[in-house]
Write a structure and sequence with these properties.
alpha/beta, Rossmann fold, GMP Synthetase, Chain A, domain 3, seven-stranded mixed beta sheet, five-stranded parallel beta sheet, 20 helices, binds adenosine-5'-triphosphate, binds magnesium ion
Length: 631
């Protein structure tokens, strides 16, 4: 048995001793008495009796050995700024922020809602909350006022922290007026709003008695030292709402000790990062990837983390690779959407920079199609590791673990179940285990490992009802994703369970059809949705973005490309999966986190209302879809 398979087996059969060992990676103010309390399934409490603190583990613990090492490097191509903070400097900045926050009466268990651009103060604020035992909830700075208000009402924060503005592609995004509107809409508005003034929006007006100016207060609190509030391991560290791709967002509640342990282990086993090295995660602090692998993970592991404010293609498509070369990045983490954006750019950008420091490039967030995986692997010349996880889990569910065993990448697959996860691929009909190459629903037999959500914020019943009721006779956590395992044990994600379409009685995942369409050389990106069909029940419909637009510039060209693509699908999957039509667009409707708005796409294709679009990246995509449907 390989080293990894062995580790995984031990993490399941010897759960408590495995995690007791892993727990030694972090600092405990008081040691735990019990590794796991699972007396109330499916609620799991990890490291019972232990006391710790995320901020202490991410910052204070390193001061003695790496106080002068860079902890945070802020790079903004929006403001042309680069600023590095050593662990000592980070410690000072976090203490000032913590002192300012505490002065507003915020303490243990109080919620603080952050609506922030990618600036160092966002990281300071998260760590400061953790230091105080306050529960942060970062709302992605791109959500509309109504979405922000809904999160305010759910989290009921005492304080909100924002900035005057963010920047995107050189354009100012006015955060402060949006927060004003969100607070106005909310039924449980915070008492105060702390504003970090970047000086981008010169017009914003403070609300007297409510708004506080961070820069002014920080001066008053200069040099402050705020003691760490030690929390019980299972006390909440933060609330993070899911992306809302499939409906009403759920407030994922994370614990403290389990999360710190899970992240610390993953930094070594999965990301293969070493203390003192540099990690560059291209996500946003508003998403789970940002929480775990921009802020907490790398810092807990004593690494330098890069906080990048800007686009992947500005000033040009080489910017990320320039950052890797300039900062000798060892571990990089990005998304399939970003990979597809770069794939459309001149490949010369990838050759321009020295990427020799880079060990692995990790991608997650949505399906990584095989051609893009292969392309990126060749272009970067380093293993590109697709890995799969959810806001709910906080760290990977499926991955390779190059920190344990060299990565044997299989294109299109996020690899194997991660240690700690008792993953089951089950037949939907009777919850029995699917065989090799047979589709099944991905489920996790509880207890969920450390780091995973402990409940839905304020709603234990919703936690159980939402995640543990897919199969009536067994208590299993449903990922709502559909997968298949090959004979070598590699798992492939076939899409979300509600993305399966039924063509004349055949159940086909939209992901499978997308993968088949992608096999055509001229396809950059594709989305397949099921549309109602009088004869077959449902039929797949494909929206494709081509690499060479000249080929679809004329009607004759479009017809020829469509025929070629349909023939490709026929070859790969058979005629049953053949899309009714292939419509060509240059943009697909996506959320700001790069996820396809599949429900909206399907609604438009069926002539229905596209629904909630507050998180859409570029509304122009909808116009294109509407127009394409008219042809
Ligand atoms: P909501 O749950 O609110 O509808 P969401 O599921 O989009 O939103 P996230 O938790 O950010 O919110 O996304 C997790 C989902 O993203 C997974 O369940 C899966 O569908 C998809 N995903 C993540 N990583 C991968 C991957 N490597 N391959 C395929 N799909 C992935
Ligand atoms: Mg989800």
């Amino acid at each position: 048995m390989g080293a990894y398979a062995d580790l995984h087996r031990r993490s399941i059969t010897d759960r408590e001793s495995f995690w007791a060992e892993e727990a030694q990676r972090i600092h405990w103010h008081r040691p735990f008495d019990q590794v796991l309390d699972y007396s109330r399934p499916p609620f799991a409490k990890w490291f019972v009796g232990g006391q710790t603190n995320l901020c202490y583990n991410a910052v204070d613990r390193h001061l003695a050995t790496r106080g002068d090492q860079p902890a945070l490097v802020y790079i903004s191509t929006e403001t042309d700024t680069e600023k590095s903070y050593t662990y000592n400097e980070l410690h000072d900045a976090v203490n000032v922020m913590a002192s300012v926050i505490a002065a507003q009466g915020v303490g243990r268990g109080d919620r603080v809602l952050l609506y922030m651009p990618m600036i160092p103060e966002a990281v300071f604020a998260m760590l400061a909350c953790a230091r105080l035992g306050a529960v942060h909830s970062v709302v992605f700075g791109g959500f509309a006022a109504a979405s922000c208000a809904a999160r305010i009402d759910d989290a009921k924060p005492k304080l909100m922290i924002t900035a005057d503005a963010g920047l995107r592609g050189g354009k100012a995004i006015h955060y402060k007026p949006l927060v004003d509107e969100a607070v106005r809409l909310a039924k449980h508005p915070p008492r105060h709003v702390l504003v970090v003034n970047r000086g981008i929006d010169k017009e914003w007006q403070p609300v007297p008695g409510r708004d506080l100016l961070y820069t002014a207060l920080a001066g008053n609190h200069a040099g402050a030292q705020v003691p760490v509030t030690w929390l019980e391991s299972s006390e909440p560290s933060y609330i993070l709402y899911t992306s809302g791709t499939t409906g009403k967002p759920k407030g994922v509640q994370r614990d403290t000790g389990g999360y710190a342990v899970a992240l610390a282990g993953s930094m070594q086993h999965i990301y293969d990062g070493r203390p003192g090295e540099t990690m560059f995660t291209t996500s946003d602090v508003g998403w789970v990837v940002g929480h775990s692998y921009i802020v907490y993970g790398p810092l807990i592991h004593g690494m330098t983390t890069i906080l990048y404010e800007g686009l992947p293609i500005r000033p040009d498509a080489g910017i990320w690779w320039k950052i890797v070369a300039d900062h000798k990045v060892n571990v990089m983490f990005s998304s399939p959407t970003a990979a597809r954006v770069l794939k459309k750019q001149d490949p010369a950008y990838l050759k321009k920079y020295d990427l020799s420091s880079l060990r692995h490039l990790f991608l997650a967030g949505e399906p990584l199609d095989e051609p893009t995986h292969r392309w990126l692997h060749d272009a970067v010349g380093k293993p590109v590791i697709d890995h799969y996880w959810q806001t709910e889990t906080g760290w990977p569910i499926l991955s390779l673990a190059p920190g344990i065993e060299p990565a044997q990448v299989k294109y299109g697959s996020p690899g194997f179940p991660v240690y700690g996860y008792d993953l089951k691929l089950l037949r939907e009909a009777d919850a029995t285990e699917a065989g090799p190459n047979e589709k099944g629903v991905l489920t996790i037999a509880p207890p969920l490992p450390p780091g995973c959500m402990t409940t839905v914020w304020g709603d234990d019943a919703r936690f159980v009802e939402t995640y543990f009721r897919t199969f009536p006779d067994q208590l299993l956590y449903a990922t709502f994703d559909w997968g298949v395992r090959d004979a070598d044990g590699y798992t492939f994600i076939l899409g979300r369970t509600d993305d399966v379409i039924n063509v004349a009685g055949h159940r086909i995942g939209t992901r499978e059809i997308e993968e088949a369409v992608q096999a055509h050389a001229n396809i950059a990106e594709v989305a397949v949705v099921g549309v109602a069909d009088a004869v077959k029940g449902q039929m797949p419909l494909a929206f494709a973005v081509v690499r060479d637009a000249a080929k679809v510039a004329t009607e004759a060209g479009r017809v020829a490309q469509e025929q070629e693509i349909l023939a490709t699908v026929d070859r790969q999957l058979g005629g049953i999966a053949r899309p009714k039509r292939v419509l060509f667009v240059t943009l697909l409707p996506k959320t700001r986190s790069g996820k396809l708005l599949r429900r909206s796409l399907q609604a438009l294709a069926e002539g229905r209302d596209p629904g909630d679009l507050t998180t859409i990246e570029d509304p122009a995509a909808l116009e294109q879809i509407r127009n394409a449907l008219l042809t």
